[in-house]
Amino acid sequence: MPGSATLGGLADRIKNLWLGWGPYALLAALTLAAYVPVFFSDFIRLDDGFYVVHNPHVIGGFTGENLAWAFQTGYQGNWHPLTWLSHILDVRLFGLHPLGHHLTSLLFHVVNAWLLFQLLQRMTGALGRSLVVAALFALHPLHVESVAWVAERKDVLSTFFFLLALGAYARYARSSGGASETAAGSQGRPEVAAPADGRRWLAYVLALAFFALGLMSKPMLVTVPFILLLLDYWPLGRLQPGPRRTSPASLLLEKAPFFVLTIASCIVTFLVQDKSHATALALPLALRLANAIVSYAKYLGKTVWPIDLAVFYPHPDLRYPISHQWPAWIIVVATLALAMVSVGIVLRRHRAPWLVVGWFWFLGTLVPVIGLVQVGIHGLADRYTYIPLIGLFLAVAWEAEALWRAWVSSPRIPASINFEGFELKPLLTNPRIPAALASTVLLSLGLLTFRQAAFWQTNLGLFQHALVVTGGSALAHFHVGTGLGELEQFPEAKEHFQAAVRTDPTYAPPYYSLGLIAEAEGQPAQAITNYQRVIQLRPDWPPGPNQLAWLLATHPLAEVRNGAEAVRWAQRACELAGGQEPHFLATLDAAYAEAGRFDDAIRTATQGRDLALAAGDRKLAAEADARLALYARKQAFRQQP
Q1: Residue 501 falls within a domain, yes or no?
Q2: Mean predicted confidence (pLDDT) in 271-284
Q3: Residue 150 included in any domain
Q4: Is residue 441 part of a domain?
Q5: Lowest-confidence pick of 187-196, 271-280, 283-292, 392-401
Q6: 589 and 496, same structural domain?
Q7: CA 383: distance to chain centroid?
Q8: What is residue 549's three-state secondary structure?
């Protein structure tokens, strides 16, 4: 009947529309729903100030000087010029309103989930499993840190280029290695046909270019050549017997340009981090190895049971031996577990190649950040799992499908039981069961992600949660104290700063805060002692000498002031900050005035005012004008008592 034909055509169009766009819409909707708290999140004091809020090069826009800085700087111990450019663009578009910056990171996360789904579907032809892997990637709580933390833009940006590189490489490999139906483990052929020879090398060049852009976003991508070799094994099937099989030697030679970029990135990263004192090779090798092994086990545990996540997990206390930090049985069990899983997966490589790819993807992509070369003071970090978990998700999705098919075809399932002819097998083998289980897992993860993202809405809430989860660290105490101070709960804030000092006497920031409190309490001598301690612990940190100089230049009591010393420390702070930070220039002009060098004070205050205006900070510019009026009358600036 005509009506039936019309309805049938409409049903086909709806089905085709779903197959074409439905998975993408579903991924976007689920991800945005899980990350709703991000829409109401502020900047976080930990690194967001360095990366955006107080970074004059980022705030200053796309000037020639700032572009040169982005490509030349090793600021914050990293060389990632594209990440800096993305932050500059955000400031141009959204100013310093946090919503726009958070939305950019979230949209990158959504697009990354889309790219992952598309990549897996095109390589394997398996729509359902590819969608599950992409949804796990989009909704797992371990990824909240990479998405909700503006300073971790490098995670979502580098992964964007990483997935584009894998996609381009898969197109190239389609014409030179082939992906058989058996190798892909799919029910049908992969969707993408081999590109013509004329386009083959274009795909290769694009893969190399995207890899380079990824490295310029975050150097953690140095393991990409090894990921390409894993994909050659499965699902691309370039090592499988057949007329289009590629020899292992040819595959390695093919990756030579990728390895060159990897080596160059490793050298640049090490030099930059070593220059900024971010690396900690002085840590005993035994400690680093033990931390790496235990961290692998912890990452696996947090993947399976993603609760009690924190923005900062302190590294084990070096004042104690390794046996105190981790009982020997924990290290032994973790080592044996990792080794046994690895051996078991290798033995099953012919029947389940996806396990080999997924497991060694996870192990390999964590190597740059597992702590063998220690960077920073953390023991592990949720953000490091952003790419590695893709491997685990892939292995789980494909292995679950294989186990389900084995279960369905198993002769051990009775066809029926003797209860009025009730058939058991159709119930136990209903295809809706795995779909329902997957939906339950994804819903649970989405709810946990929503809960975890809510902790990122305020600096105080984030670190109060970290204190509960980690049992207390100097960094967490410091940031809780800072948050309480912003709420003018000063006695409680002081208690947390003192707790931070007790927890780690070598951690500089709480001494700085205690110095500010001592100033406010009318104890300048105690404040000076605290600032000197900051300088001793962090001689390369500008706020220490800057605040000491400000106190020595502007304190109401003459016996506290010392113009010459104030100039010395203010010049040091400006030198460390690059000479373009208006807050530090304000201290320097006040120090010049206290030393009687009013011409220098006027010149410096004018420069600071102009920089403040260029950055849109009218309040700071007005303060500079007020000081200029004093300097014109040969008067120094004084704090109010």
Answers
A1: yes
A2: 64
A3: no
A4: no
A5: 187-196
A6: yes
A7: 4
A8: helix
Backbone angles phi, psi at 345, to 5 degrees: -70, -40
Integer Cα distance of 166 and 172 in angstroms: 10
Q: What pLDDT is stored for residue 417 in this prediction?
A: 53
Contacts of 461 (CB under 8 A, 6+ apart): 454, 455
**Confidence tier at 639 by pLDDT (50, 70, 90):** confident
Do 475 and 612 reside in the same domain of the chain? yes
Is residue 96 within 8 A of residue 56, CB to CB? The reply is no
The CATH number of whichever domain residue 478 belongs to comes to 1.25.40.10
The residues, any chain, with a CB within 8 Å of residue 99's CB and separated by 6 or more, are 39
Same domain, 470 and 611: yes
Please, are residues 214 and 221 in contact by the beta-carbon 8 Å criterion? yes
Q: Specify the residue for token string 């390695």.
A: 252
Three-state DSSP class for 317? coil
The model's confidence at residue 191, banded by pLDDT at 50, 70 and 90, is very low
Model pLDDT for residues 526-537, shown as the tens digit of each residue: 999 999 999 999
Nearest alpha carbon to residue 411 among 401, 421, 425, 423: 425
Domain of residue 377 covers: 284-386
Domain end call among 357, 386, 415? 386
338 in any annotated domain:
yes
The answer to whether residues 602 and 463 belong to one domain is yes
Rounded CA-CA distance 598/167 in Å is 62
CA-to-CA distance for 309 and 299, rounded, in angstroms? 11
- Is the CB of residue 425 less than 8 Å from the CB of residue 431? no
Domain identity same for 356 and 494: no
Q: Are residues 542 and 623 in the same domain?
A: yes
Whether this prediction's pTM lies above 0.85 is answered by: yes
Same domain, 296 and 382: yes
Residues in a beta bridge with 416: 423
Task: State yes or no: pLDDT of 280 exceeds 60.
Answer: no
Asked if residues 358 and 396 have their Cβ atoms less than 8 Å apart, the reply is yes
Using one digit for the tens of pLDDT, what is the confidence trace for 456-511? Answer: 999 999 999 999 998 888 899 999 999 999 898 999 999 999 999 998 898 999 99
Of 386, 408, 438, the residue at which a domain comes to its end is 386
Contact between residue 586 and residue 605 where contact means Cβ atoms under 8 Å apart = yes
354 with 496, same domain: the answer is no
Predicted confidence (pLDDT) at residue 10 exceeds the cutoff of 90: no
- Looking at residue 497, what is its pLDDT? 96
| Counts for the chain of helices (H) and strands (E), in that order | 31, 2
Counted domains in the chain: 2
